[in-house]
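Protocol step 4 of 6: structure prediction from sequence.
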Amino acid sequence: MRDEKLIRLIKISLLSVMAFLLMYIELPLPIFPEFLKIDISDLPALLGAFALGPVAGIIIELFKNILHGMLASKTAFIGELANFLVGSCLILVSGYIYKARKSKGGAIVGLLIGVVCMSIFASVLNYFVILPLYETVLGFPIAAVVGMGSKINHNIKDLNSFVIWMIIPFNFLKGIVISVMTLALYKSVSPILHKENIESKYKNKNRQQNI
């Protein structure tokens, strides 16, 4: 039992470090303001959620952001807080749906519902918490954020329209990218993440047969 817990902890730790390193790879897109950049750091957490359960995925997401906040934060942990909460929404929803229905169809349904939930949650979170925190703590006014958005999309006139035309599409696109990568990689990564569990079950079965 101790060996299984240790192996599980090692897997979570390795996936957390991988996710942390992926946070450094950011892709700016011309259709979004400069501060909204696509990254795939939620990918290891999603893989972990599918293989080890949604709670493990949340832990990976938490460790990733704690590491980034301690070593590389430029936003006084506000960016890491947003990344953790929004990413956890995707991981929690997708992970639990896949846990209930472990098949390719279950994974696809879980990821699609997770992306929609994440996009909606991100819009509410940014409107009421994250953008006001940027303004209060870092002195980055919401008016400036809206202004950056309006230069790209003339439909943006205020915070409401910024959330509708920028926050929701950005998180939806990011979620789709991560989901496609998860589906592409999980089949090849899954045997590695499950290897020790399978061996442990096999050994326990043999012991029971020998008794």
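Step 5 (inspection) to follow. Helices lie at 2-22, 43-52, 54-71, 78-100, 104-138, 142-152, 159-210.
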